[in-house]
Amino acid sequence: MSLCLVIGSTGLVGSHLMQVASTNQFEMIGADLSNQCPHERLDIRKQEDVQLLIKKINPSVVCLPAALTNVDYCESFPKESYATNVLGVGNVVQATNEIGAKIVYFSSDYIFDGVAGPYRETDPANPINVYGQQKLAAEHYVAMHARDYLIIRTTVVYGWERQGKNFIYRLLNTLKANQILNVPADQIGNPTYAPNLAQVVFELICMDESGVYHVVGSERVSRYELACESARVFGLDENLIHGVRTSELAQAASRPLNAGMVTDKVSAIIKTPLVGYRDGLRMMALAIHATYSSEGPENH
Known about the structure:
The chain has 300 residues and is an alpha/beta fold. It has one domain: 3-Layer(aba) Sandwich (Rossmann fold). The chain is 41% helix and 17% strand. Strand 1 (2-7), helix 1 and strand 2 form a beta-alpha-beta unit. The model has no long low-confidence stretch (mean pLDDT 94).
């Protein structure tokens, strides 16, 4: 059985990678900044710690979804975010090379400017914010220095997560509080259901694929459309959702508007179908219901 290390294992993408991997005959070990057991504690900014842990575990695959992903925070604190999003990635690449493992790095459609999406893997990058610049810099480092790598570009990832931080959770919590929510109607992308993303990634790993792949949901929609469908699926008041222009939100970082990604490359080789946002939201609702039912309301 192959051993896989997931760095960022308690986050949205990482936690679903941990769940899906066991069905693909991988032995899993998680590492994260948190103190949650049974995960190893790891700060990828600390080069020596990264080297020691990866050498000790000696995995055949290292998945790296860990990142500082708050786009506006990255814009305001570029040095701090660079330490994680670029230098930290370099530390993992170096340590992974030392043991001859494959690195699976998770990137974003924010490397594109959002002028003429959706984008293919071969389209030129032109990030318009610090986060996108850092993800692109990390991509370049992986591609230039990793002995064996797979770069997964994804976007607007959602799904059940214990931390409840992704876009859909924030949306639902706002609507449950009967508060008005302004959502950009001019930001277009491919919402990506986290369990589906994890399944496709491990299918690519099992096929020993390398290079760059776009792995996103099968449908492009605006954030506003996604929000309204979420309200309908979860039985909440979509009238509280107001579609606005991104420029009205006065965010620190610019956002690519006409973005999203083309998935022809990955769809041509995988068996797992990419999930659209309507189906994904329904799957998420069922997953939340199943979790609440099994754990009991006192835990939530």
